[in-house]
Structure formats: C-alpha cells, structure tokens
Design a protein that fits this description.
The protein is mostly beta strands. It has a 4-stranded antiparallel sheet with strand order 2-7-4-5, with helices on one face. Strands 1-8 form a two-stranded antiparallel sheet. The longest helix is centred in the middle third of the chain and has 11 residues. The protein is globular.
Length: 94
C-alpha cells in the first residue's frame, strides 16, 4: 500500500479546492501546511461539521490571530476547502 498521497491544489478554479484528508490518523493543520502558509500559497482552510450546531464552519487563517482559528486538526474522512494563490502539491503521509 502507498506510504503517502500527493494532492495537487490548483488556483485555476478561483483558487478553491475541495480535498478529502487521506491519512489514517489526524494531523495538526500547521504540521501539514506550514511551508505553504509561510510562502503565502495557501491562505484559508474551511470545513463544515454539521454536528456542531453552534459553530459548524471551522476555519484556519494563517494571517489571523490564534484565537480566531477553530480548525486545529485535519481528520480522516472529512473534506476541506483550501484556498490557494499558486499551485501547491501536498504530500500527505499515511
């Protein structure tokens, strides 16, 4: 079985990409995307948790203060909207 999955994110469709998280366990958002946040290639990540009736939309914005980011982990089986300003290749380890 593969030890990682490569996912290409493209800015051509307005910059938004819907991506499923392919790993078998959760990872911190900053651990997966840090180099892309630093370069400015990724500027927003959203997900929707319908079970959270008070705040179903979870967000990570690297330019925002930590207290405003409520998306800390990427979880298997969830989809994430990722906004990119340039092509990004993610290499997600399994």
């Amino acid at each position: 079985y593969p030890i990682s999955t490569q996912i290409t994110l493209s800015p051509t469709a307005g910059g938004w990409n819907l991506v499923g998280y392919p790993a078998g366990s959760s990872s911190e958002v900053t651990a997966i995307f840090l180099e892309h946040f630093t370069s400015g290639a990724i500027s927003l990540i959203y997900t929707y948790h319908a079970s959270d009736s008070i705040d179903p939309w979870k967000l990570y914005d690297p330019a925002a203060p930590d207290y405003s980011n409520d998306l800390d982990l990427l979880d298997p089986g969830w989809g994430y909207w990722i906004y990119v300003t340039q092509e990004v290749i993610l290499d997600i380890a399994h």
